[in-house]
Amino acid sequence: MTLYGENSPPADDRPTVQVTAVTWPDAGPEPVTAAAPEEPDGNGPRRPRRVRMLLAAGITGGVLATVAGAGAWAYAGDVPRGTSVLGTELGGRSRADADRELRAELDRRAATLATPLKVTVDGRTADINPADVGLAVDVPATVAAAAEADAHPVSRLVGSRTVEPVVTVDVSRLDDALRKVLGDQAQGMTMPAITYLGTKPKVVQPKPGLALNPQRSAEVVRAGWLAGAPITVPLVETHPATTPEELDRLVSELAKPAVAAPVTLRTSKGSLTVPPAAIAKSLRFSADKTGKLTPAVDVKRLRAALGDKLAAIEVPPKDATMKISGGRPTATEGRSGQQLDAAALSRDLLAVLPKADGREVIGELKPTPPQLTAEKLAGLGIKERVSTFTTRFTGGMASSRSQNIATIARKVDGTVVLPGKTFSLNGHTGERGYAQGYRDAPVILDGKLVPGVGGGTSQFTTTLFNATYYAGLEDVEHKPHSYWFDRYPAVIESTIFWPNLDFKFRNNTEYGVLIDTSYTSSTITVSIWSTKIYDSVKTEYGPRRNVTTPKQIHLTPGPSCIETNGINGFTQDAFRVMKKGGVVVKREKFTWRYDAEPRYVCGPKP
């Protein structure tokens, strides 16, 4: 029994609770202290302090348990609760579920997302199909962004957040589409340039311009696509990378001193002098699309400028050739040459051109193998005649026109076009002038026949075009005559004129193509040898329409006046039909409008 003093509180009739002391790890023995006094709470006696501590611990544990439960709720799923994309709740979901839900929402919006964009560029407006420029929502990237929207525990418990979808676009295709909208309205940069007029540098100063910036355009279109509102794409002021100050420095430190004196080129086979005129023709200042000028010596141009001076030093390689002998293609081996190391010569020349003294370089001669060997040529699949085409001419070989046809035919004979390569007739023959053996003959100039050097080469061009056409090769560039001549098939014919009008075809097969030419006093024939791709290639014509009759025009008599009988004008379609295994595999349409050729009379009106 316990005795209380006179001031002791009334006896407590609540049951006694026994509490076993707990020792926390590493806490050591509990210190001995004086008993803590009891504290009144205003409603009766207070509990002992140890009891109150235990009750507080219990409450804290309850709170922590509640918080832990809320945290588990907040962190359920990969995407934080309250997160939405395009108005769709993705919060609390796994990434896989969020991915499916977002794709379902995009499917529901498919028609809206496919609606053409109303885009304005510099006041010009057009519709652009989203699919044409690669506009799309990147679902995996959007879900990843939603999952990482806010990882803070408290933020995940309360509030909501909207995550913008990750939008992708094909920057190049978008830029092409916007340029079509802009047309020729853009004020492009004036690119810096340094060229030579003789040996005098001619300078074009750089100027800024207003133009589309592909990356900026993509940002604007990505941001505005899902809003469904009209989009205005800005033009951005752009400055060439080479400034006026840098351009002036290039002129004073390189362009002018480069042509101030000759350069001596020394080799193991002798020396030669590179005059300022040859330097001016070979020193090029090329600007990239940003307007940055880079100087370089073009050794190919240098060779052309030096001409015969290099003949005593260099031996050019010769490619293997192929001829038709005994009705089948036969390859003849080429030979190696010995030429200056072009890369080293370009580098070393550029280094001495700014100098006033010591203008001397050493040229290294290196063995140069042919690009095309007989072994490679034999493996190109040139084994059979795929097509042949012949046109007729009058006058015999005494005619200047006939001689021009024979000259260009000899130049092209034996040409091999490798798989995937494009043949250019102008590029192959170069200029066709008096120096190249061509003569004056009638050509069409300003709508009438006049004497001109190289007349008749269009007939060879038409013959070559038809041979490649019936071989099924890809037409890259050709232009029919302005008037129709009955010696040519309508529509399927081509003119040529140096340097503006060219004929090009591409070898779109996996085999080599050999051009074989031959001529008589009245015909020119071109045959294509390769491996056949199609069983047949034929032409189907549509009817002539919009027929016009010629006018009669009187000209002043003289050497330049050539009379004509006049030819009707018309429009016609021609279809190239290619079959393989008896089935049409390709059908191509060619259309041309011929003017009515006037009836020219040399003399005054009666």
From TrEMBL:
InterPro entries: Glycopeptide_resist_protein, Vancomycin_resist_VanW, YoaR-like_PG-bd. Residues 243-360 form the YoaR-like putative peptidoglycan binding domain. Residues 22-48 are annotated as: Disordered. Pfam families: PG_binding_4, VanW. The keyword Transferase does not apply. Residues 27-37 have a biased composition (Low complexity). The chain crosses the membrane at residues 54-76. Keywords: Membrane, Transmembrane, Transmembrane helix. The keyword Protease does not apply. This is Vanomycin resistance protein VanB. It comes from Micromonospora inaquosa. The lineage of its organism: Bacteria, Bacillati, Actinomycetota, Actinomycetes, Micromonosporales.
